[in-house]
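Service request form, structural biology core

Requester: graduate student, group of Dr. S.
Request type: structure prediction, single chain
Budget code: on file
Notes: please return the result as structure tokens.

Sequence provided:
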Amino acid sequence: MATPEDHGDPMTRTTVMKTAASLAAGLLLVSASPAVAQAKEALGPFGYGGVKLGMSAKTARATGKIVPKTNDGGCSGWDLKAHPTGENAVGMFISKKRGVAVIFAAKGMKTPQGIGLGSTTKQLKRAYPRLRTSASGYPYVSVEGNPKAYYSFLVSRGKVYEMALGLNTQDCVN
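Core staff response, request fulfilled:
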């Protein structure tokens, strides 16, 4: 059976073209949305969710995005409100000397290069070809776009199970 398009009906062709253009625009918006959301919520290069490396405890607390957990002298432990860690863990450390020193990744957090908890060693090496190994055996890399910071990773059975964004000069963890 012939369709109106087969007969060259210009009104139908215009309608089909407009519909196709609308669908294409919609697909672009839908496909762009996750990337925008990921970029907005990326761990790094300067912090996470409005909490920036180097911020004082007072400034970080004023963001309304963190809650205190421990205060053991030179560094205090905090959680991001959106990512509570439980009783015996912290989501970040704030140094009295350096400010926000280390932010630990929570489930769902990813670096701008797409690495998060559960990423494979192969994905880690592909995302960070300059990955090095510390003296204590864990992989780390300088943060692209922030020469004052690094990412560190703990890997077991070929997958990242812990990672952090930290200041090169942080004095809270080894």
